[in-house]
Predict the structure of Butyrophilin subfamily 1 member A1-like.
Amino acid sequence: MINGLSEMLLCLTFLVLYGFMESQSAQLQVFGPDDYLVAVAGKDLVLPCYIKPSTSVVEMTVRWLKQETKHMLVHLYKDHEDRNEDQAQSYRRRTSLFTEELQKGNASLRLSDLRVSDEGEYTCFIEDESWSDDITFYVTVNALGSHPVIMMESYDNSGGIHLLCESRGWKPEPEVLWLDREGDILPAEDTQIHRDTEGFNVKRSITVHDNSNHNRFYCRLLQEDHMRETEIIINRKVFGAWKWVVGISVLACLIAVGWIITAVILHKKEKQRQKVEYILSDKKKFAELQSRSIEDDLAKMKKFAVDVILDPDTANPFLILSADGKQVTDGDEWQNLPDTPQRFTKHPDVVGKQSFSSGRFYYEVQVRGKTEWDLGVVRENINRKGEIILRPQNGFWTVGLRNENQYKAFAGPSVPLTLREKVEKVGVFVDYEEGLVSFYDVNSRSHIYSFTGQTFTEKLYPFFSPCDNDGGKNSAPLIISPVFNTE
Ligand SMILES: *[C@@H]1O[C@H](CO)[C@@H](O)[C@H](O)[C@H]1NC(C)=O
């Protein structure tokens, strides 16, 4: 019996309490502005939101949202602090609540540095465990656009000048007017309007003619009671200059046509294969054709094949030459040899016995199994004793391999070469009078590199460097191989 009574009392207390809370919550309501807000871009704006009767929102959750295609989080206050991890990127560091006002039930939001893209519907949503309410209102953002810029675009064929006035970032869109110095509106082309996220961009063109000594024109943009204006003054002489401009344009056209004709003639003179290159876009066919044409070239060059033999009197004492003078490798051991002027003593280099001071010549060198090598031709008077920098300026026209796969043309500065395959045999072709030194990959029949337009005045010697032995890694010899004429 006593138990039953106390249970009933407890129950009653809850009912009363619940009823009290319910009635308090029922009275609470969120308020905002009575109408939509109009704000100005660049300024700050307070978005009003508060509860009545005045009750602290310190313990509550305040959520500011913007209605886009979906809700965008503008600001979140929860558990006594701002929780803006999920805030929309465009509102970063631009929102704040008024901390002191929260206890008065004021959850207004300050939004700073307004943009036209901030325009839209905002919702202020306040809730605690037992109650929630919200208010939604619209914010319009107006913007005063940039100062108009006037561009002199062109002359028309009656001596008028075409002017374009342009300005960006207006909201709402402005009226664009062209005026003369008396303030009279001039007839102009239609205004072009283009809208983007930051407002309206406007353009309006006019063609003006010379009519006084002071040709002043104004481009004026009007938006409600705002105005922006730019002036342009055109000197009389400028109006007169159009004839010159036309003259110069005609001349420029004639020169261009001349160029084109020359180019066409030159182009026609080019070899048949280059024509084919243009026609065939198919890469494989192209590569095939190219190697076929290089094959032709190689076949021609092979007619100039010479029998090169290494000159032991020039070989660096580290180098080991075969008895027939066709092979060379770095033996990694200094041999006691007479230090004659023609002997390379610093680098592991050697030249051929034959020299050339005219005509064309060709030879092939096997480089298979090597990680480094240099090949080419050199002038007679090159430095054989000291530090050598391989470059045409120093009398070396060479290409080489470094670190197993880095092919280079030592063109001073050196040029990295991208080759399709590892080179096993190099063909060297020289045309003394043409100033040409070309290198070919004999097996894949592709071109490696060419020095062109060189001037040779001295004897040229075939040049070989098997490079450092590198502890046996680069011990494979360079081999001057016999040239088989495939024809
Ligand atoms: C809320 O706080 C803001 C900022 O201090 C103030 O401008 C606004 O008048 C306040 N609103 C109310 C209803 O007190």
